[in-house]
Amino acid sequence: MTHDITLSLQEAQALSRRILRHAGFGTGHVEAITQSVVAAQRDECHSHGLYRLLGCVETAKMGGLDPQAVPEVIDQAPGIVRVDARYGSSLLAFEQGLAPLREKAERNGIAVLAINHCFHFSALWSEVEALSGMGLAGLAMNPTHAFVAPAGGVRALLGTNPFAFSWPRPGGNPYTFDFATSVVARGEIELHRRAGKSIPDNWALDDRGQPTTDPTAALEGAMLTFGSHKGSALSTMIELLAGPLIGDALSHETQAANAAGTGRPCHGELVIALSPKTFLGEQCEAGLLHAERLFEEMLGQGARLPSQRRFQARSRSLKEGVSIPAALYRDLQALAGEDGKAD
Amino acid sequence: MTHDITLSLQEAQALSRRILRHAGFGTGHVEAITQSVVAAQRDECHSHGLYRLLGCVETAKMGGLDPQAVPEVIDQAPGIVRVDARYGSSLLAFEQGLAPLREKAERNGIAVLAINHCFHFSALWSEVEALSGMGLAGLAMNPTHAFVAPAGGVRALLGTNPFAFSWPRPGGNPYTFDFATSVVARGEIELHRRAGKSIPDNWALDDRGQPTTDPTAALEGAMLTFGSHKGSALSTMIELLAGPLIGDALSHETQAANAAGTGRPCHGELVIALSPKTFLGEQCEAGLLHAERLFEEMLGQGARLPSQRRFQARSRSLKEGVSIPAALYRDLQALAGEDGKAD
């Protein structure tokens, strides 16, 4: 029998802060990580929610990320802000790069935030939504660890390399998507394994490079990209732009450290911001209204917009708080240490 | 019985120039279009090769594009060059925007070329390869006409919206991909129809929004995107960035004119250039060599890189010239008018 514990967003934040402080995270990291995991929990993205704190604390203990890292913000070029996360979480690096990124995007029309040497465990939608919340269109991508074979290949080489985009909508939630370039999330295969179910034959290869429907063989082999060679191409682009272009690692170079649980070497992240105001000037409002026609046509024919379910969850959580399994709540409390009962 | 005519690249160019001049294209357009169709023919991309001149000339006759259009280059912002193609071919607009795009990308690290009101009939790989040929990474995308249903939808709304990327490789052909976000090219369904073959059930919907294996029903209905909701999301992003962001049309707004063969309203195109030199400074060469490790790993496990077949064709054509069906050659000669026999 399982039951859930309901927390208000404030209670969830307080719990997260206690855990992170107890694990030795610096104040900036405590806030940035808390904002991220509570936003994910609020949107019912459970795997990026409070649950993620367990791994985050464990990785800090193993020395895989530096909980006290002080990001260094570098004005690389008129259109590039670079933030060296110095082996800390990507989230504080993103937060510190956001204002200069906005300033550069609004001045130039387009700008990049390149984050180096970051430990990355968060979803990208919250970052691109930070941009659309400022009236910018945002793109984000990063390599991960080598779990995915390139199209036509036989071994894991590419990461699950997420790609996210958000577009500002007047008076409403933004248009946002955030997807892995692997055909499914790795956790999905793990769920099939636990349930004793086979997987479709286009999800993964076994360790001899043959398509498999056995989830255990898949986890020991390589996942496949979504959309065959097109998804593989997109994933390769992400490796290049969020790797060598910014002087950072490729997914296959971080795999050994990931498998060992030590986190390092970490990798990079690339965020691109485009400013509709700079593109359109006085026609900006008209341009954003023009985009609405596309969404109206989609909804009018019964298509869903990506993230709709997440926005519904958000609306619900803002009123009712968030629910997590009691067992997870106990595990989190145990990490909160002596000050576990007070904020 | 069919046979082929072999032309040297110079002969192919001369033929293209005669056709375009005879159809009243201005000198700049003659050169830009000739470079594009002969490059495609050289790479054995037949549908974008000399064959494309037939449609190009026909559209000019119908008033769908202006063969004498003079593009206007606008310095929109430090990171944006905008070119109003004024209802001419996109190719001359791209050519005129290329130098300022390069200059902005090298100064800022990233820059955009936004082309407005262009008639678009060329493949994007030649444009992103123009960028990688200058040592830049290039991305290009454009809406087309509404042939594709969004994920979960029932009617055509999105274009086949191509997405292309090229990355400079030291001493060799670039890493380039260029794919439609529809599951296949529309011509592929047409080929199945002609051959009396059924199509896979994930390619298209009939006019009632139901999956169909009948190519005729598919052509009257809507194509699907590659990679299900992920491809649909990517296609939607292309609509937004190469449409409303640059003050230009969505695919469904150009559909009626396309069906009528009049071409207008035309649409836009978005090109993004990123400068490795500006990102990496003195580490640029090392960064490009670092990227090579990814390609080596791919090739080492038997995966192909996209465009490899095209580069092989290029190498062959540079030596042996290009071959086109005799019937196409006759049709092209007929368009070349009185000066059809001399350059």
Question: What would you say this structure looks like, in words?
Answer:
Chain A is α+β, with helices and mostly antiparallel strands. The first copy, chain A, has two domains: 1-61 and 308-343, Malate/L-lactate/L-sulpholactate dehydrogenase, four-helix barrel (Hypothetical Oxidoreductase Yiak, Chain: A, domain 1); 69-183 and 224-306, Ribosomal Protein S8, Chain: A, domain 1. Chain A has 13 helices and eleven strands. Chain A has helices at 9-22, 27-42, 52-61, 90-108, 125-132, 186-195, 215-220, 228-241, 255-260, 276-280, 284-300, 308-320, 326-335; strands at residues 4-7, 72-77, 80-84, 110-118, 137-141, 162-167, 175-180, 204-205, 222-223, 267-274, 322-325. A seven-stranded mixed β-sheet of chain A has the order 2-3-4-10-5-6-7, sandwiched between helices. In chain A, a hairpin with a 7-residue loop joins strand 6 (162-167) and strand 7 (175-180). The relative contact order of chain A is 0.17. The model of chain A has no long low-confidence stretch (mean pLDDT 94). The interface between A and B is large, with 71 and 71 residues. Chains A, B: Pfam families: Ldh_2. Chains A, B: This is Oxidoreductase. Chains A, B: Keywords: Oxidoreductase.
